[in-house]
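seq as requested:
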Amino acid sequence: MIVEFFCAPSVNGSYAEAETDEAVDTGGAPEKKENFLVSDEELSGYRETVEKVLSAAENRFPDFAADTGTTVNVYLVDNEMIRGMNKEQRGIDRETDVLSFPFLDLREGDGDIDEYDLNPENGAIMLGEIVVSVEKMKEQALEYGHGESRELAFLVCHGFLHLMGYDHEEKDDEAKMFPLTESILNEAGYGR
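struct tokens:
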């Protein structure tokens, strides 16, 4: 599993700048680290959580990308950004905790892959993008009475399963997706 990890400048400006090699525009004012949603240390822990969960999730589909591996882009954003994406992509004008944008048309981990679905640099299957609102993640961790790592792990796993073609709109689909989510989280060390 190759995880491409991105962070909105409002979440952690120094990380976003380092990753994109673009300066964060502060309007000439000095950067105020305390205005960011997460510290560098927190962000490092989040990245570790994301990588552990996605590795455990990929292990559930050993035949899917046995030869090439997979790539997933993960974005940590604020409520304003995810609200705009939710409105633009789904027509829902409110923030949400996680959005998934699959690049493939899979159904429960199965589907056709062609050469255009492969990253030309490394041959990995490009699954899609997972966008997580850090603000919602923190709020829900408090609401549910568990740590931020557990909540982030859940959201990323949930997003990954959507990329793999799982859904929870119908009871039958939910009965497949939710136990698989808990099983992956247990394997990654983020069980309840």
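Residues 106 and 128 are 11 Å apart (CA to CA).
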